[in-house]
From TrEMBL:
It holds the Pfam family Beta-prop_KIB1-4. InterPro entries: F-box_BR-signaling, KIB1-4_b-propeller. It comes from Rhynchospora pubera. Residues 82-326 form the KIB1-4 beta-propeller domain. This is F-box protein (DUF295).
Length: 387
């Protein structure tokens, strides 16, 4: 005897009723979606699809960043613009929380917002509208390695250029760290703490400016012009200082976020000669000298305390952001996107272009032109996430 299977639609209907698909089938389909925007659309099909797919999925890969555009005309109305490279589309999110606030940095889908005075400080997830309150910036600080109070300076917090977390924000022991652009200190806190804790350069570099900083595996890495300092947060009095290769000291160096390990990006330019037609000089070719941007990627070796250059960059895309912030995205997750592998993507605020440049050759192309009608105050890469 053949058992009849009830289909979710009748053959006489014009369109199938997809809302009656088995819950397991809907859930399996949802795990095949990798774009966060497509996942939102998937859950919006109907109530049964929404209940069969988790609101905070764990299968989504790290997303291609959106370009957060601080347009002074729309921000007053609580509208924030995000340009999505994946869809070549501008998203408009209603975020009244951002009105009259400074957006200092972003990390893992969260924005760091503060008032000019620094009295109000919080994290905001633009997709979920979740909000996490942080200690104010305009109160006394404390030092990590002793019990002394540290002074605060008015409006110093407006120079924050990077935000990072030690673990997931749901972990009560998660450290939230803010790094200041070209300063001599870093501030850390946990959710619920009343004030920030200060990590300074230490006696060896007490007056030297920290060019950049990053966190990895319980340690802070501080980058100077000629050296790198490693601070174990469990033993802040014990610090390791590594002198950088003299060949690298003349270039601009910044840490690369988004990869497991400690990576450094070095940017510079080179003068290259190209042969061009020249009828004016009665010669077949003229030599034209052009300045081309170059980017090199290095990984810090924990055993040798040296930087080792990564020659194969085809599996990495580097997004160059506001205030020298660099974010990496693995091309394995986005192999269908041509501009990801081996490129760095830049969005300078002066010409409204998003450009992709090959790391090895320096060859550039314009990916898109932003609407020049926007009154752009700042641009920031934002990696959307539900968590």
């Amino acid at each position: 005897m053949v058992k009849k299977i009830k289909m979710p639609w009748t053959w006489t209907s014009e369109l199938p009723d997809w809302s009656h698909l088995p819950e397991l089938a809907v859930h399996l389909m949802s795990t095949k979606v990798k774009s966060i925007v497509d996942y939102v659309r998937f859950r919006a099909v109907c109530s049964s699809w929404r209940s069969a797919s988790p609101p905070k999925p764990s299968h989504l890969p790290p997303q291609l960043p959106w370009l957060m555009i601080h347009d002074i005309t729309t921000i007053k109305e609580g509208i924030t613009l995000f340009y999505d490279l994946w869809e070549s589309k501008m998203h408009k999110l209603h975020l009244p929380e951002i009105v009259n606030m400074w957006c200092l940095a972003s990390c893992h889908g969260w924005l760091l917002l503060t008032t000019t005075s620094g009295q109000e400080v919080f994290l905001l997830n633009p997709l979920t509208r979740a909000r996490i309150q942080l200690p104010p910036f305009n109160t006394e600080l404390k030092y990590l390695d002793n019990d002394r109070d540290a002074p605060f300076y008015d409006c110093l917090h407006l120079s924050v250029n990077k935000l990072t977390f030690s673990t997931d924000l749901t972990d009560p022991n998660c450290l939230i760290m803010v790094f200041y652009q070209k300063m001599i200190m870093i501030q850390i806190c946990r959710v619920g703490e009343p004030r920030w804790t200060v990590v300074t350069s230490g006696p060896l570099h007490s007056y030297e400016i920290i060019q950049d900083a990053t966190y990895y595996n319980g340690r802070l890495y501080l980058l100077y012009d000629e050296a790198m300092q490693i601070v174990d947060l469990n033993k802040p009095e014990e610090r390791i200082v590594c002198t950088l290769d003299p060949k690298l000291q003349n270039f601009r160096m910044r840490f690369l976020e988004g990869k497991s390990g400690v990576y450094v990006v070095i940017t510079h330019s080179s003068i290259e000669e190209d042969e061009v037609d020249s009828a004016a000089h009665n010669t077949k070719y003229d030599i034209k000298k052009t300045r081309k941007p170059k980017m090199e990627l290095y990984q810090f070796q924990e055993q040798s305390l040296k930087l080792k250059q990564i020659t194969d960059t085809n599996n990495t895309a580097v997004f160059c952001g506001w205030r020298d912030f660099f974010l990496a995205v693995c091309s394995y997750d986005w192999d269908s996107v041509d501009y990801v592998g081996g490129n760095y993507i830049d969005a300078p605020g002066s010409n409204y272009h998003i450009c992709s440049t090959k790391m090895d050759s320096g060859k550039s192309e314009v990916l898109c032109d932003l609407d020049a009608g926007h009154f752009i105050e700042s641009l920031m890469w934002f990696q959307p996430s539900f968590h």
